[in-house]
Amino acid sequence: MKAGDPSGEFAPILRNNGGGSSSSNQATNRRATVGRYRIVLLATAVALILTWLSQFVVEQSGLRHSFGGGNTKETPSLLAEEELTNGSNKNDTETKTATTITHEQLLEREKALNQKEQELKEREEKLKREKEEATKQKQEEEAAKQKEEEERAKREEEEKRAKQKEEEEAAKQKEEEEKRAKQEEEEKRSKEEAEKGGEKEGEDGKESPDAKRKRLNAEKDEFLKRYRVYMEPTEPNENKVEKNHVAWNKQKAWNELSPIKQAQIENYRKEKALLLNLHPTHHGGTAFCSRMRKGIGNSTSPDFVCMGDNAHVMPVPPDCSVSGKEYHQSNDPPYCYTHKEMLRRMPWTKDETGPFVRSIRKYFHLQTNEFRPRLGFMGRTFDQTDWEFPELVSVVITRDPLSRILAGDGYLTKERNYKGYNEHLLNHTRWWDLAAYKNEMDTDNFFLRTMLRLSKSTRTSEQRAIRNHIEEGVERSTEVIMKLFPTGINETHYEAAKSLLDRMTFVLDIDCLNDGMNAMIKILRFGVPPPRSRPHRIHAKPKERIDFPDVFEYLVAKNEWDIALYEYSKTISLVKCDEL
């Protein structure tokens, strides 16, 4: 049906209005029909809009339920009405709320994960620490076990050596007994042969006593030629003619002195010369001071072992320093120095010798100064001193180098920890430390180095790293060790020291020191010699006091030139001990 058709839906209405009898009525009816038609269209559109809104509200209600919006059971129409009332703002609020809750949950989860990760990290660190502690404990246990094994091996080695030593001593004792018995038998046979017509070989073809004696003396001469050291023959010589002991001859000793030395002695007799003792450590300086403290004309010496003027007998000199500084300079006058400063400047130069000697002689007749092997003041040496100065009487006491080593030095026994080394208490290893490996100055040409103002030899890092062969359990001969640690001392040093000894007024041998001091007193005319001092304790020979033959052999070779210097000093000593 088309719109405006009278036969259609609105025909009854038109018919009631007259059926369109006139044109004006028709126009009015047409407008009324169009109006109704518009209303119907509007109502239809509203119904469609309401239907669409209802579907939209239902869809929004479903979304709200899925995000926790509640258990609403409202009808679609009610939801639509609620949507129309509250508008779109409510939907926006609910969407923001759902988003906020989800972010907080993520933060909580992230926090939980971080906490768990931290716990895992702490656990790993704890396990790591426990593992390190276990490893360290294991290493300590292994080190302790190894140390215990080493100590046990060392004890076993020491016990083995002790047992071996006992066996060697027992074998040696047995051998000596057999040798003694054999010697007695040979002596008896020799006497019988001598009665029958002189010396000859025994019937059994063995060496006769006289032939053996000659052989031993030849071996001794070879040893002396090599090491320049005196040793007793290993066998007594029954045919040796005993020397006649003769008294010291004052006139003979005087005639052997040079004119310069005689002039020095004459000046001392006139109370003009100073007696100066060069005292290497352990060379009898204390005994010499005790005996010679009181000199000619009731003169005296410094109170502290004839060295230090602790009583301040000498006055303090005037302040006459040219340089004006706190310490003296080389151009200061000699009379500006105190007693202590004079001794500190030893060895004196030739220009200092005269003024210093005269300054000290005004108050003391004897002055001693102790020396060790080290560089002198400002690098000076004793050959720079004017030993020929007429008002100076010099004296030096010499000693067997190996005997000096065994003097019981407090420096060696306490500071260097060689306690008992001169009392048969030091073991083999420590003896070799003292003799070679620790570079001790007391065992390296001590007297010769002292006279020449030489320090002990300097060793390289490679030499210091060489370990004791006894401790290592290896063999090293004297020649090998001498090559490892050369002393640097040669014949040139020996000749220089020998020339210096020749310049001394008196040289005394410590083996007969009392006799030497008595001879000095007579020559210097102190008057009546003082009472004989208590004799020194007589020790056994160094070879008997050093328990290990290899150490003794090495010390003899190492101190070859020092031993040679001592042997020479005995020939120029005021009193020859061998002639007494």
Explain what this protein looks like in three dimensions:
By secondary structure, the chain is mainly alpha-helical. The protein folds into 2 domains: 11-86, no CATH class; 250-579, no CATH class. The protein is built from 22 helices and 4 strands. The protein has helices at residues 11-16, 23-66, 76-86, 88-197, 209-227, 250-256, 259-269, 285-292, 339-344, 350-361, 401-405, 410-415, 428-437, 446-452, 461-464, 469-472, 478-484, 491-503, 513-524, 542-545, 549-558, 560-572, and strands at 274-280, 366-371, 392-398, 506-509. The longest helix is centred in the first third of the chain and has 110 residues, at 88-197.
Keywords:
single chain; 580 residues; disordered N terminus; mainly alpha; four-stranded parallel beta sheet; 2 domains
Question: What fraction of the residues are assigned to beta strands by DSSP?
Answer: under 5%
- Strand line-up of the largest beta sheet: 2-1-3-4
Record field, number of beta strands: 4
Distance between the termini: 178 Å
Number of helices: 22
H/E topology pattern:
HHHHHHHEHHHEEHHHHHHHHEHHHH
Classify the secondary structure makeup into a structural class: mainly alpha
Measured as a percent range, the helix fraction is: 55-70%
Radius of gyration: 60 Å
Report the mean per-residue pLDDT as an integer. 78
List segments where confidence is low: pLDDT < 50 over at least 5 consecutive residues.
Answer: 1-21, 65-81, 95-100, 197-204, 226-245
**Total domain modules:** 2
Question: Quick one: biggest sheet?
Answer: 4 strands, parallel
**What does the overall shape look like?**
elongated
